[in-house]
Write a structure and sequence with these properties.
Helix content: over 70%
Number of domains: 2
Largest sheet: 2 strands, antiparallel
Strand order of the largest sheet: 1-2
């Protein structure tokens, strides 16, 4: 069966791009950004030549942009589904927190690869990735959730943007600690965090 164009590419080309992206995620997670070369990615993807990568991606920055976009979208979709299952804002906040740990449990390579990319941008060791890193670090949706919860009377938060940064910062630090020290009870850490922020957002 012939391939048909999708956004200017064939299904076969889209499948190859997806294969390269997944191989890059696995490579970043396994050996880190510094050692991640097109040759290493080829080994993971079982590609015969690095030319198959450069055919689809002009360079490492473009490939990392697509990797970041792929991970962020996958995580956002999972988080949105999880939050939508809750009927209260307190439940939605808990779902927001636990969804990060659920994603890390289900997709550990994706979580580790994203951490590598974010750290790379923070240290200014890569150009052209600032916008995708901002997308990965954005707390805008959480701010909206907290503000709506305040209006509904479920939360009492003087400054929702600051609280959103506190929530996300706590999540990121627990994730980083887990990746460094392989904490066994990740679900327990998630429960502790949800309990902490449930208490500090209680209405008077």
């Amino acid at each position: 069966m012939p391939s048909h164009p999708v956004h200017g590419r064939t299904f076969t080309q889209d499948a190859r791009r997806a294969q390269i992206v997944e191989a890059t995620i696995e490579t970043l997670a396994e050996i880190g950004y510094t050692k991640t070369s097109f040759t290493a990615i080829c080994r993971h993807a079982n590609l015969s030549s690095t030319g198959l990568i450069t055919y689809h991606f002009t360079g490492k920055p473009q490939l990392l942009r697509e990797v970041t976009r792929t991970i962020v979208e996958k995580a956002r979709e999972a988080r949105t589904r999880r939050i939508a299952q809750e009927t209260t804002y307190r439940g939605k906040l808990n779902a927001y927190i636990t969804s990060h740990f659920d994603f890390m449990s289900c997709y550990p390579a994706h979580a580790r690869a994203l951490t590598e990319i974010v750290e790379l941008v923070r240290e200014r060791r890569a150009l052209g990735l600032d916008d995708v890193a901002r997308s990965a670090l954005s707390v805008e949706s959480l701010v909206v959730l907290l503000e709506e919860g305040c209006r509904a009377g479920e939360f009492r938060i003087p400054d929702p943007p600051v609280m959103a940064l506190a929530v996300q910062g706590a999540i990121d630090n627990v994730v980083r600690h887990h990746q460094l020290f392989s904490v066994a009870d990740l679900s327990g850490r998630a429960r502790e965090l949800t309990d902490i922020f449930d208490r500090c957002t209680q209405p008077a």
